[in-house]
């Protein structure tokens, strides 16, 4: 009986370590693609067991990443699909940088996300419809980028589920418009967009 317990504990430890390593690998894959003139990612050492000791990264009691705070850090480069592997991430704060390229569809895998702050960057392309998977999202600030196309209808429907409080998509190149709605009777979502949508 004792040996079975030991085997179970070792297995649980291995699974936990593998998860932490995969999160570190995901963040390191991003670091490799970024230009970091201020060395804010200097502590991001991929040889460590997990990224919980890295600056700008917060973890929960299970050593799983819950927060990445890289606002106003002088970073340039893309977001990477590997960010979608951070299963317990609640806050992705990457505002006021020079992040370019598109928003990866894999961001829609971050189903625990509460705040997605990508404003004041150089992101382009469409808003991925996969963001509609973010049912816990309260703050979506994508303003002051170069995003184009229409806001996907499934993303606008996040308003109806009652969690989204702010959706700021102003100062982009988006077409169409979204209107305030309060069908749930509980939450009122503030939607901030340009007065005239660009065609």
Give a structural overview:
The chain has helices at 2-33, 153-156, and strands at residues 57-59, 65-69, 76-78, 91-93, 98-101, 115-117, 122-125, 139-141, 146-150, 166-168, 173-175, 190-192. It is an alpha/beta fold and 199 residues long. It has a single domain, classed as Leucine-rich repeat, LRR (right-handed beta-alpha superhelix), CATH 3.80.10.10. A seven-stranded mixed β-sheet has the order 1-2-4-6-8-10-12, with no helix packed on it. Strands 3-5-7-9-11 form a five-stranded parallel β-sheet, with no helix packed on it. Strand 1 (57-59) and strand 2 form a beta hairpin. The longest helix is centred in the N-terminal third of the chain and has 32 residues, at 2-33.
Query: Which fold name is given in CATH as the topology?
Result: Leucine-rich repeat, LRR (right-handed beta-alpha superhelix)
Judging from the principal axes of the Cα atoms, what is the shape? Answer: globular
- Looking at how many chains there are and whether they match, the oligomeric state comes to single chain
The number of distinct structural domains comes to 1
Low-confidence stretches: 6-20, 181-187
The average pLDDT value, as a whole number, equals 85
């Amino acid at each position: 009986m004792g040996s079975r317990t030991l085997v179970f504990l070792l297995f649980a430890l291995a699974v936990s370590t593998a998860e932490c390593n995969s999160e570190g690998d995901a963040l390191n894959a991003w670091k490799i693609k970024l230009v970091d003139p201020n060395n804010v990612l200097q502590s991001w050492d991929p040889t460590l067991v997990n990224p919980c000791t890295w600056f700008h990264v917060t973890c929960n009691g299970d050593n799983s990443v819950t927060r990445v705070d890289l606002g106003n850090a002088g970073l340039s480069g893309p977001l990477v699909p590997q960010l979608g592997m951070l299963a317990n991430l609640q806050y992705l704060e990457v505002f006021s940088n020079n992040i370019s390229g598109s928003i990866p569809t894999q961001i829609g895998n971050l189903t625990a996300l509460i705040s997605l702050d990508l404003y004041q960057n150089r992101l382009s392309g469409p808003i991925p419809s996969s963001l509609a998977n973010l049912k816990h999202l309260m703050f979506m600030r994508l303003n002051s980028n170069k995003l184009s196309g229409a806001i996907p209808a499934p993303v606008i429907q996040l308003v109806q589920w009652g969690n989204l409080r702010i959706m700021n998509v102003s100062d982009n190149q988006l077409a169409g418009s979204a209107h305030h709605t309060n069908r749930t009777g509980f939450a009122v979502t503030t939607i901030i967009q340009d007065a005239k949508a660009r065609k």
